[in-house]
Amino acid sequence: MPERVPGVRLGVDDVCNLCRDPAAVAGASARWEAARQRYESDFEQALDDARGRAEYDCLVPLSGGKDSVYLLYLLAVERKLKVLAFTVDINIPPIAWENIRRTLGKLNIDHLVYSPSQRFYRNVFRYLLQNQEERGAVYTLSYVYAPLFEGDAIRLAIAKGIPLVLAGYSPGQPEPERMLYEFSPHLVRHTDWTPPELVKCGEFDADDLARFYNPQTYPAGTAFPRYLAPFHAWPYNQEEIMRKVVAHGLVATGRHANPIHSNYPINWLLMYSDLRTFGYNPYAPEFSTLIRHGKANRNYWRVMGPVVDFLIRHRLGPAREVTRSLEWLGLSAADLRINKPRGAYDPVIEQP
User: Fold this and answer.
1) Is CATH 2.130.10.10 the right assignment for the domain spanning 30-349?
2) Which of 44, 129, 207, 246 minimizes the number of CB atoms within 10 Å of its CB?
3) Strand, helix or coil at 84?
4) Regarding beta strands 110-114 and 132-133, do their DSSP bridges make them parallel or antiparallel, or are they unpaired?
5) Residue 74 carries which DSSP code?
6) Residues 75 and 81 sit within 8 Å (Cβ to Cβ)
7) Rounded Cα gap, residues 209 and 194, in angstroms
8) In this structure, are strands 83-88 and 132-133 parallel, antiparallel, or unpaired?
9) How many Å apart are CA 308 and CA 64, to the nearest integer?
10) Per-residue model confidence as pLDDT tens for the chain (352 residues)
């Protein structure tokens, strides 16, 4: 964990305060495991209840990363569920498309692709990167970009009567205040997901804003799906999944399973912005949490973390996407700035 992360203090032995008390770490792991077991019990019942209720038992957002392709395998092959895969075709890299095609060819699963307007997303990314909230670029875009494709999945599930949307979020994703295992039913059934800051700023018209999911536009009696994260309920290990997707032939090589290569290209620009602003990679706390609870490999990320940060700062290798994204958006590094208060973009965290 980088020492620049708020609340983190390194001792002279380079052990941070989060790991200094083994009993506290063990207690946190035990609480995490107890919660996981509660989620698992609910999830198994949800799968039983969903089976055979509609043309498809569940809808799985498919990004082409290791977690989403492995989730398809678990649901379709091991659980024998009728699965519909769904991809929103925005900012998906070629290596992830290779994973998608290979996985679908192996599993024989129906797949729908939605290709929305690039203009809208370009305008949203431009505005958000120039008007970041105080937690930075990754946080700002996560609170707007993710609800867009999550909302698309919910809309499709409603249209097809699919009772479950099952996302391949690893533990710690998305932000815990947005979701722990399940988006609250109130959020899915009653809350307008349109970020109020985008309404106020005047940069987006009614058609643009209508792209955000709003359950209030549906008539009374609409059947809304549950939106769950199975990897919050099932035992999860990052390295094990990276091995298994290769072993099952879902992806071609370990490189294809590596999140460094299969992530959204815009993420390189977001990490670049936050490294400049805060001095540490915004994903370091997430991976450090997985490591502390035995769900990711410490030695691997001790090596790869600094390598990735070096590539980002110097825009080398896969981090050349920083330059390409800036050119696509018509921005310079100087345009990446924080000027909005904390919480400016996150109406979806408001729950009863």
Assistant:
1) no
2) 207
3) strand
4) unpaired
5) I
6) yes
7) 7
8) unpaired
9) 20
10) 888 888 888 888 888 888 888 888 888 888 988 999 999 999 999 999 999 999 999 999 999 999 999 999 999 999 999 999 999 999 899 999 999 999 999 998 999 999 998 999 999 999 999 999 999 999 999 889 999 999 999 999 999 999 999 999 998 788 887 889 999 999 999 999 999 899 999 999 999 999 999 999 999 999 999 999 999 999 999 889 999 999 999 999 999 988 777 788 999 999 999 999 999 998 888 888 888 878 788 888 888 889 999 999 999 998 999 999 999 999 999 999 999 998 888 765 444 3
Rounded CA separation 102/79 (Å)? 20
Classify residue 144 as left (phi > 0), alpha (psi -120 to 50) or beta. Answer: alpha
Residues listed for the chain: 352
Report d(CA 218, CA 163) in Å as an integer. 16
Coil vs helix vs strand at 204? coil
**What is the C-alpha separation between 92 and 266, in angstroms, rounded?**
9
Q: Any residues with CB less than 8 A from the CB of 8 and at least 6 apart, and which? A: 1, 2, 16, 17, 18
Residue 12 one-letter amino acid: V
Which residues fall within 8 angstroms of residue 61, CB to CB, at 6 or more apart?
68, 86, 87, 88, 149, 150, 153, 165, 167, 168
Tokens, residue 189: 């059934």
Give the count of beta carbons closer than 10 Å to the beta carbon of residue 280. Answer: 19
From the centroid of its chain, how far is CA 171?
Answer: 10
- Domains of the chain, by residue range, sit at 30-349
